[in-house]
Each structure stands twice: as C-alpha cells, then as structure tokens.
Amino acid sequence: MIKIYMLRHEEAVPRNARGLDRDRALTPEGEKKIAASARGMARLGITPDRIWTSPYVRAVQTARAAAADLGMADKIEEKKELSPGADPGEIADLIAKQIGEEGSVMIVGHNPDFEQLIAWLISPRGDANIDFKKGALALIHAGLPIKQGSASLRWLMIPSQMAQADQ
C-alpha cells in the first residue's frame, strides 16, 4: 500500500500585478502556522520516505518547514508536475513509477489541484467534493496500479488540528 500525504501550501502574499505567481512567498502568519503544523506532524509520527514539492516559492517554503521538523531536510525534491494546473493522472503515474508498492511520499502543492487530485484518486467519476484548506494535510492509501477511483482517503486534517498535536 502506497501512502500519499498531501500538504497544501500555507497562506501566501497576495497576487501582485508586477510579480510572478510562482514567486509568491508565505506570509509571516503562514510561516507561523506551518511551523506549528510541522511540529504537530512530527508528534503524530508522520514519516514519509520523501517529500516532493511544487517549484513555486510558497510550496517550497511549506515543504522545507515540514521537512525540518520531520528530520527530512535532505529528502525534498522539486517536481514540475506539482505546479499549478497539474494533471491528476500524471501525478498518479509519477507516484506509481517512483514510490513503489510499500513506499510513502508527501506532496506539497496547490488548490484547486489537490481537491481535483483527491477526487480523481477516490472517486471513479472524479466528482468527490473535497474542501482542502490552506495548510491542510490528507493521507491517501493507494495500491498499484493507481487508477481513477482506486484509492481511499484515510483522513484530512486542518492546520489547527495538527497544531493541537504540538501541545
């Protein structure tokens, strides 16, 4: 069984007409929230084999914060496939090819992509309605081959729930 942890980036600075979307960084509040969530993840024993992140700044910052508390700073890889507009089938193929039957990965990325990916993974028609908040973390279990509707959503936590595990 493959474990897929999905972590949505935390709050980022607003879009600016002069800057690129890919360069938007986390706000100070977003940095604070992901730090608390990451400590909670560590206390909950979340231990993926590796962390993949979108190359966008806000996702990389979120991945680094999680990796620091999980003792995985050297296991982060940027994946262009996780950039905004990602195709659920391509992400599923990437996971299937690179993780193996008993592996685990934390992917860090964006909405609406993550809502669409979860729906694709757990619903044969891809029509599950998932509300994936900024900073939320989900766990999906999938077997090989990963096909649309073949996985199960094990849990979904919002940042305040992860932060409570830190207390």
Please sum up the structure shown.
With 167 residues, the protein is α/β, with parallel strands linked by helices. The chain has one domain (2-165): Rossmann fold.
Give a structural overview.
With 167 residues, the chain is of the alpha/beta class. It has a single domain (2-165), classed as Rossmann fold. Helices cover 35% and strands 19% of the residues. The protein contains five helices and six strands. Strands 3-2-4-1-5-6 form a six-stranded mixed β-sheet, sandwiched between helices. Helix 1 runs parallel beside helix 2 (57-70), helix 1 crosses helix 5 (159-165) and helix 3 crosses helix 4. It is globular and about 40 Å long. It starts with a strand and ends with a helix. 40% of the residues are buried.
List keywords for this structure.
167 residues, alpha/beta, Rossmann fold, six-stranded mixed sheet, 6 strands
Strand order of the largest sheet: 3-2-4-1-5-6
Which sequence of SSEs, written as H and E, runs from N to C? EHEHEHEHEEH
Q: Compute the number of helices.
A: 5
What are the segments in which pLDDT stays under 50 over at least 5 consecutive residues? none
CATH homologous superfamily - what is it? Phosphoglycerate mutase-like
End-to-end CA span = 31 Å
CATH-defined topology: Rossmann fold
- Global mean pLDDT: 94
What is the number of domains? 1
Count every beta strand, where a strand is a DSSP E run of 2 or more residues. Answer: 6
How much of the polypeptide forms β-strand, as a percent range?
Answer: 15-25%
| CATH architecture descriptor | 3-Layer(aba) Sandwich
Shape label: globular
Q: C-alpha Rg, in Å?
A: 15 Å
CATH class term: Alpha Beta
